[in-house]
Fold this protein.
Amino acid sequence: MMATASQPHLIELQGVTKVYGQGAAEMKALRGIDLTIAPGEFVAVMGPSGSGKSTCMNIIGCLDTPTSGSYLFQGVDVGSLTRNQRALLRRNYLGFVFQGFNLLNRTSALENVELPLIYRGLPAEERHQQAREALCQVGLEGWEHHTPGELSGGQQQRVAIARAIVTRPAVLLADEPTGNLDTARGHEVMELLSGFNRELGITIVMVTHEAEIAAYAARNLRFVDGLLAKESSNGEKR
Amino acid sequence: MLWNALLLALRSIRRNVLRSFLTTLGIVIGVASVIIMVNLGAGATLQVKQQIESLGSNLLFLRPGQRFGHGSRTPAPPFKLADVEAITREISGVAEAAPLATQAMVAVYGNENWNTSVTGSDNRYFRVGNWEFAEGRDFSDSELRTGRSVCVIGETVRQKLFGAQSPIGSSIRLQKISCEVIGLLQSKGQSAGGSDQDETIVMPLRTFWRRIAGNQDVQRVSISARDGVSTTLVQRDIENLMREIRRMGPGKEDDFSVMDMQEIARTLTGTTQILTALLGAVAAVSLLVGGIGIMNIMLVSVTERTREIGIRLAIGAQERDVLTQFLVEAVVLSSFGGLFGILLALTTSWFIAGLLNIPFVVEATMVMFAFLFSMMIGVAFGYFPARKAARLDPIDALRHE
């Protein structure tokens, strides 16, 4: 799937910079990023550590705001939103999958998946049903009442994916989703993610180190020293 | 919104039962100690009131010398029997007045002897003092008139001298005289002042004068006011009458004192109430310490759960969602603490009341107050940690190990 000019931009970054610290300690993490992502895209972000890819992900994920430049999410300037408005944006449009799974300890898989629905204020019955469905979609039927400690790494990441997609987000942000998994589990997780991208049309922006994993995405971005270096397309491979 | 916060708070408490229990322990102990102190204090006050009522709340005492509380009692002449008759005759508010003369003495029966005191009076003594007879009878007219060596004894004296057997008809020795026991008084237990009211031997006044005192003095007068008559009024009348009888000029201070039983009751219940308030205040400090304990553990918990808070914020929790969750958690914990504290307090104060032999009283308002206060402590001491949690930066929080 390729982005074409006629499609509306879901994500649009214009001259985005991010500077940490002040004076001598000043560190430019992003030095002017221009990027557009259309609905339904699957984008892999690569680059060495310190290249600014995590900073960029945080900005796209509305966890952080640019120092200068603008970030438009569905045409809305995120930089002008308050902390709480950004929280609402995350709640209603974004899903997160992390390298370290980031599930709540001593909390059942079902309750973990329910969490974003609780913040959305869904009634209990609907919440349970949707959470069960999501767990089913990641192949964890029957594991609802297991806590993260009782699940393998691959299973934990699948619970995390269920938690991210249970709200049917517009964008799923995955930060090295396979980083803590072995190759086989990693590919299972990637199959799941690309499945949700294809079948539910969920836009995915994923950070990864591995070219093999990045190959699942239709579009690859490479960060070098706070700038976007090169864009390549894997469209034909899929 | 609040319902969701409650759900999240309960889940979080359930996830860490031990920590939650330890957090609430301070509140449990604080609430329990406040309620126990207040309940026991209320029980003690009630007991004092009941004892005073058993004496008769319409009682007045007339003694020579100035009232207690102002240093040593100045020596003053005793009363005469005529004074007692005058009080009964002249003051319409007086129902009855009993003359009393008392001396400390050893009572002997068989091999047993008991250090006690002997009171000379007449049957008015029993009526004014609300005494009932367990066995035997009061004095007959001829016994009173001729001053026979007969006596009525209290329960304590019976126990010490006679053990299990009935004292009626036996004779006890008081100094050189032998005295036949004709009556046994029903037990009244400890007086409000802490002295044993059953520690008593009563004999006709005339007998006491002739065989023991060797004079015709009346040391004290117990007076009961008529029902519905103000004891304060009667007290004033007695004071005026006594000044007249003793021919005291206007400038002279009373050389006698009239004490109102209600006054004594007020003093005594006042004392127990002050003590209760004091102990309650000390216990309230422990409640405060319990609150600080909650804050402490909530702060630790915020640090420990930084990552969890990061996850919640990333997933779409607003500042106020996290704030409410932590606040509700603190309030739920402190309310649980309050509830357990109340249960602990009720069982403990019931047990202690039984042990101390005082009535078990539940101060419902205090129980309510303690519960509400523990919830307030949850809000007050939970707010700071909750705000700290809500203001975390989601990126930093997610990175927190």
